[in-house]
């Protein structure tokens, strides 16, 4: 109407506009795209293996995409929860079957829809909680990472060690394999930092900078486990079940309350924590868990991360020593029956990696990364590493 706009209104309008643009970009790049891209490349990689006469590898890749849905469906069935109520009816069983069969597409779709709905809402002000829909989307994303992505990384690294690279699809041999492996690995590292704070306060997730620093701190742990576990699996074969079970049992024990250490109260939280922290140090605290666990979550994380690192190094290092002996000796009396029964000494000849490559590349890398995690643990209580982990927090960032 011919009136000039005050300068204060102009500045505030531009700030809100830039905030909305930043919210749209970050939501699309870091929330909406990663999950379907990860699942899509895994399915494509599995189908490519089947087409190229590797049905076993392809079936394993495709089978891992069903794991998040199976975990979700079985969890809902055991708890007696359906999408329509809390009663145990045949709807509960039907929901379990649907998630087991179609969870590979329902969970990524659920994640995408939840984050897309957040774009239709104004950006939350500092201190405001996120919606329940966005919390559920984060949970679906973390479920996919802690099951499918971790399994795909270990499987694809094992395939590279056993069979090598597949035929070229775009630019170079094995490009589709490496693309699927890289996306899953990035998802694990990215989610490691997000889960660290999300489990403390689901409705008040961390900023990008906070989670990014934690991801960098936890990256050496992930690298060590991603390299060590495939070596143990491909050389020890079925015997690798023993160290994996030992890791799970020790993780479960370490997640509980121990003498002088904080721990989780509920058994379900300890079981989830034990399984999730095989690849990446993490603590699972359910939204319905004891409030004391939520209040003490920074201290629980600090104590459990220390236990988890020592557990992985203590279990995997003896396995690597055994593998090194079996690979580099033609006949060892004390391991003779083991080699004959499981053909362990014949393994290197059937793998794409040679004994020299094992001794000069893979073994030193795994040993150094494992030792670095121990040094990293000794430094975790210093101000340099403790500050990004926020171990000093003794409160929950919510309305209470």
Description:
- This protein is an all-alpha fold.
- The chain has 15 helices and no strands.
- The chain has helices at residues 7-32, 34-51, 55-79, 90-119, 132-162, 175-198, 208-236, 241-255, 267-276, 291-295, 297-328, 336-342, 347-350, 355-379, 383-389.
- Helix 2 packs antiparallel against helix 6 (175-198), helix 3 (55-79) packs across helix 4 (90-119) and helix 3 (55-79) packs antiparallel against helix 5.
- The radius of gyration is 23 Å and the shape is globular.
- Compute the gyration radius: what is it? 23 Å
Rounded mean pLDDT score: 80
Number of strands: 0
Quote the beta fraction.
under 5%
Secondary-structure element sequence?
HHHHHHHHHHHHHHH
Taken from the alpha-carbon principal axes, the silhouette is: globular
Number of helices: 15
Low-pLDDT regions: 7-16, 331-349, 396-400
Structural class: mainly alpha
> In this structure, how is the largest beta sheet organized?
none
The rounded distance between the terminal residues' Cα atoms is 47 Å
State the helical fraction: over 70%
Give the secondary structure arrangement, pairings included.
Layout lengths: L6 H26 L1 H18 L3 H25 L10 H30 L12 H31 L12 H24 L9 H29 L4 H15 L11 H10 L14 H5 L1 H32 L7 H7 L4 H4 L4 H25 L3 H7 L11
Give the tags.
globular; 15 helices; 400 residues; mainly alpha
Describe this structure in a few short sentences:
The protein is an all-alpha fold. The chain is 72% helix and 0% strand. The protein is built from 15 helices and no strands.
